[in-house]
Design a protein that fits this description.
Blueprint: H1 3-6, E1 16-17, E2 32-39, E3 45-51, E4 61-67, E5 79-81, E6 87-96, E7 102-110, E8 121-126, E9 140-143, E10 152-153, E11 159-164, E12 182-187, E13 195-200, E14 211-214, E15 220-225, E16 230-235, E17 246-247, E18 258-261, E19 267-272, E20 281-286, E21 297-300, E22 305-312, E23 318-324, E24 331-337, H2 339-344, E25 353-360
Antiparallel strand pairs: 1-5, 2-3, 3-4, 4-5, 6-7, 7-8, 8-9, 10-11, 11-12, 12-13, 14-15, 15-16, 16-17, 18-19, 19-20, 20-21, 22-23, 23-24, 24-25
Length: about 375
């Protein structure tokens, strides 16, 4: 295995309609998790996650499911990104851009380990995500690294994408020391092109998994996954330069979190609040740009739950997706709630639903 072999990960892999393909039967999948969710302007819920093989490794592929009844029922997997050979597809991210197009981002890496030292951020765009037959564009590779969290649209109209070449892992295939940071990619032309804007250097970061919010004073606040929980860095110049990374007081285990500006202006944080393990996934709100947080709404108290992603619809309903027991139950779950529920610290709205099953592998589905 050499550097030339690893160029197999640079080959585009289009989305494939997998309906009727027994390779992707739910009962055959031994591992799955790391989900993402979006709701399109027409009301379709899309979710993606990855699995395949018995662990994180070269047999991984990305799967997509949809719901047209607000998540009460979900389709079987309809599309997959499944590279051939020793190339894995992983860490998907769904995002509806300001033009109403649905983007699917994912990473590709080569080899028998999970990281080839370079990886790559890939994207495919669907311009008609509410159609009976959605059409996906050809994939394109945007940059080195991994991007598993949603872009941020600034007040200027620019898009910022959080990507990273992990510093916590190494590979004999590629090194790229100049890129092993929490990177920021920027687009000023609605996704036609992307350029490196800057990067943060947060000590003890662990797979980065960073997210960016624009604060009310115009500064950018980056939160980064670390070995101890969550670290932070701030930019005052649109993401060109970033302050020295330091710990936050947000706590939690070394695991993915979710933060987003809501339509109301509040910030929403979903994290394992008050716990060192991957349990007690909780939604909290901040009225003061993250200085203080509400006690919040407990979404799921069970152990081995992780990796929240979310979206908010035009009516103010919030959808959070996460996984549970990736190797045993293999469940993808969803919580639906409003800010009212979070402030009340319990489900009081008609929209509220917790522990909703989106998908489960390793079991036979009823036909």
């Amino acid at each position: 295995m050499n550097i030339a072999d690893s160029d197999a990960a640079l080959i585009p892999v289009p989305l494939t309609d997998i309906r009727g393909n027994g390779k992707y039967d739910d009962a055959e999948r031994l591992f799955q998790g790391i989900p993402t969710i979006e709701k399109t302007p027409g009301g379709t819920l899309w979710a993606a996650f990855y699995g395949g093989g018995d662990n994180e490794g070269p047999n991984n592929y990305v799967l997509i499911v949809t719901s047209d009844d607000n998540g009460r029922t979900w389709s079987s997997p309809t599309w997959a990104i499944d590279p051939p050979g020793l190339v894995r597809a992983f860490d998907p991210c769904l995002w509806v851009d300001p033009l109403g197009r649905l983007w699917l981002f994912w990473a590709q890496s080569f080899g028998e380990t999970i990281f080839d030292g370079r990886c790559g951020v890939w994207a495919s765009v669907c311009g008609n995500p509410d159609a009976a037959q959605p059409e996906w564009g050809l994939p394109r590779r945007i940059a080195h690294g991994i991007m598993m969290n949603k872009p941020t649209v600034l007040s200027s109209g620019e898009w910022l994408l959080p990507s990273a070449v992990w510093s916590c892992m190494s590979s004999s295939l590629h090194s790229l020391p100049e890129e092993r940071f929490s990177q920021v990619l920027a687009s000023a032309d609605q996704g036609e092109s992307f350029n490196k804007r800057g990067h943060a250097d947060v000590p003890n970061r662990h797979f980065d998994e960073h997210m960016i919010v624009e604060r009310k004073d115009g500064s950018l606040w980056m939160l980064v996954r670390t070995y101890y929980g969550i670290g932070e860095s701030v930019s005052e110049d649109g993401g060109l330069t970033w302050s020295p990374g330091k710990p936050t007081r947000l706590g939690g285990p070394s695991s993915r979190f979710f933060i987003r500006r809501l339509r109301s202006g509040r910030l929403l944080l979903v994290n394992h609040y008050g716990y060192r393990g991957r349990s007690h996934l909780t939604a909290q709100l901040s009225e003061d740009d993250g200085l203080t947080w509400s006690e919040g709404l407990l979404l799921d108290e069970r152990s081995d739950i992780s990796y929240p992603d979310g979206t908010e619809d035009a009516a103010g309903c919030i959808y959070i997706i996460y996984d549970r027991e990736r190797y045993k139950e293999k469940q993808i779950l969803m919580a639906v709630f409003t800010e009212e529920d979070v402030l009340a610290e319990c489900c009081v709205s008609e929209a509220a639903r917790l522990k909703v099953l989106v998908h489960q592998a390793g079991v036979l589905r009823e036909k």
